[in-house]
Write a structure and sequence with these properties.
Length: 510
């Protein structure tokens, strides 16, 4: 049976966070608006209108290009991309083709990075050299061995289309979305599995959110993905026939659609049939791809320069200013957490995946000066994430402030409560928003550390269980832990384990 290598390139469309649309002054906050209320002659494509470039959209595109290590063009040109769909009022889309704003960058992915359910929704920059266009030969489909750099072909500006709604045999159109600024980010065909594609999208979403250029919510359409996938026998240098899968709206859909399409193409080739260059849709309900149309090429779109817009020539001083204003990005932040705070690299990557979580962690570390950062990381990545996933909501809706979490950790380190009591207190704090000291006092969770009080408890336990004491003296060491459990039970878990353990050992060995 032939072994195949998967080759994947992704085209990601991101709605930019601007107040107005790409080429007119209409509000870009269209999501909750009644249909066709955020429109004007420009975005409705009425005759005689002229577009004007949105400066903020250009700035956010340049910021993204800089964050993705792209080269910023000295001059970029808008073009007309001609295709006739009902949701495209002009009959063409204003985009960029031959001369985009940003090109030739890269993004590094790691196999460990997974999407978190903790916010709204990492290795150092010294990674391996960028792979060639065809990628490393011999890598089996589905493998993901370590950090890899994925090339970025281009990142350019364009405008979004309207939205069709099919109701009772009729098709209705809402043009509120038409003209909203879109950033298209095109990867090189460097991805070698569905899992790598998923990791790429997770990392890209994280960077976009750190930059504040987009909410990048796939489920809400603010980040949309189209995947180009082909397969070839392992060791074959030339690429196979490319198939495009359109409008994938979740990480799960991307992974499942790619896995299905790779298997479909393999079956065709094994049966001696040809893979056709087509555009596929994804049927999430039945878990399969389906043919939508024969794939267009760039010639079919008849690109030509937009005559109503001048070339863009970003001022180098402006680009330098934008570069200086970039926030600390996930990879750099994770490296700092490891180097300065002593975190495990995997824990650091989990914490920096979402900017809100990273900010919460750093604020807690600042408030908990008596705590090791690793202790703070363990509580956030453990109990706090568990409660958030169980109760729902993101870190930005968390009723426990960093200072309140720091107070709880101080109660543990000072011996006032034990770990189990702290976990119970955290749940109450999560549900009520109350501070740790009041929760601990009201529920009577304070740890018993008084030696005299615990000594009497230990004596009662030993008097009540003479047979177990005899077994301990006979050499059965496990009885010590059993007796210790009885002490904790007697105190309803409030005994300071360190003090109680020392007293029990003294009484038994004495």
């Amino acid at each position: 049976m032939t072994q195949f290598e998967t080759v994947i390139g992704l085209e990601v469309h991101v709605q930019l966070l601007t107040e107005s649309k790409m080429f007119c002054g209409c509000s870009a906050a269209y999501a909750a608006a009644p249909p066709n209320t955020h429109v004007c002659p420009v975005c409705m494509a009425l005759p005689g209108v002229l577009p004007v470039i949105n400066e903020e959209a250009v700035a956010k595109t340049l910021m993204t290009g800089l964050a993705l290590h792209c080269t910023i063009a000295a001059e970029a040109v808008f073009a007309r991309k001609n295709y006739h769909y009902p949701d495209l009022p002009k009959g063409y889309q204003i985009s960029q083709y031959e001369l985009p704003l940003c090109k030739g960058g890269w993004l590094e992915i790691e196999p460990e990075l997974q999407p978190q359910s903790t916010g709204r929704g990492k290795a150092s920059d010294q990674g391996a050299a960028s792979p060639s266009e065809d990628g490393p030969a011999g890598r089996p489909s589905g493998s993901f061995d370590g950090p890899r750099r994925i090339g970025i072909t281009r990142a350019h500006l364009e405008e979004d289309t309207g939205k069709l709604m099919h109701v009772g045999g009729y098709s209705l159109i809402d043009l509120n979305r038409a003209g909203v600024p879109l950033l298209e980010i095109v990867s090189d065909p460097d991805l070698r599995s569905a899992e790598e594609a998923r990791a790429y999208l997770v990392k890209l979403q994280s960077i976009l959110r750190y930059l504040g250029v987009s909410h990048a919510d796939m489920e809400k359409g603010a980040m949309r993905c189209e995947a180009n996938v082909s397969i070839r026998p392992v060791g074959q240098p030339q690429l196979g026939t490319k198939v495009e899968i359109k409008n994938l709206n979740s990480f799960r859909a991307v992974k499942q659609a790619l896995e299905y399409e790779v298997a479909r193409q393999a079956r065709l080739i094994e049966a001696g049939e040809s893979v056709l260059q087509v555009t596929m849709g994804w049927d999430d309900e039945h878990g399969r791809t389906f043919v939508q149309r024969v794939k267009e090429t760039s010639d079919d779109y008849r690109y030509f320069p937009e005559p109503d817009l001048p070339p863009l020539a970003p001022d180098p001083a402006w680009v330098a200013e934008l570069a200086a204003a970039l926030p600390e990005l996930p990879d750099a932040k994770a490296a700092r957490f490891v180097a300065e705070l002593g975190l495990d690299p995997r824990d650091a990557r989990v914490l920096v995946a979402e900017r809100e979580v990273a900010d919460y962690f750093e604020a807690t570390v600042d408030a908990a000066r008596d705590q090791e950062p690793r202790v703070v990381a363990n509580w956030i990545g453990g109990e706090l994430f568990r409660l958030m996933n169980l109760r729902g909501g993101g870190i930005d809706q968390l009723p426990i402030t960093p200072r309140n979490l720091a107070e709880l950790l101080s109660l543990i380190s000072s011996g006032q409560i034990n770990q189990n009591s702290a976990k119970r207190a955290l749940e109450v704090m999560f549900d009520t928003g109350r501070r740790a000291p009041s929760v601990v006092q009201e529920l009577g969770m304070a740890q018993v550390s008084d030696s005299a009080a615990l000594e009497s408890v230990v004596e009662r336990v030993l008097a009540r269980h003479p047979q177990e004491v005899e077994k301990y003296h006979a050499g059965k060491g496990t009885m010590f832990e059993w007796l210790m459990g009885q002490v904790m039970r007697e105190t309803r878990g409030k005994a300071n384990p360190g003090v109680a353990r020392e007293l029990l050992k003294t009484k038994l060995d004495g």
